[in-house]
Amino acid sequence: MDFLLKKFISMFLMPLPLGVFFIVLALVLLYRDKTKPAKFMLTLSILWLFFFSYPPISNTLLYSLESNTPTLHKAPENIKYIYVLGGGHHTDMNLPITSQILEASVVRLNEGIRLYHQLDEEASIIVSGYSGLFDPTTHAVMQKKLALALGVKQEKIILRPEPRDTEEEAIAAKTLLGERPFILVTSASHMTRALKFFKNKGLNPIPAPTNHLASTQHLDYTKFFSSGALEKSRIVFHEILGLIWQKVKGI
Question: Is 114 inside a domain boundary?
Answer without folding.
Answer: yes
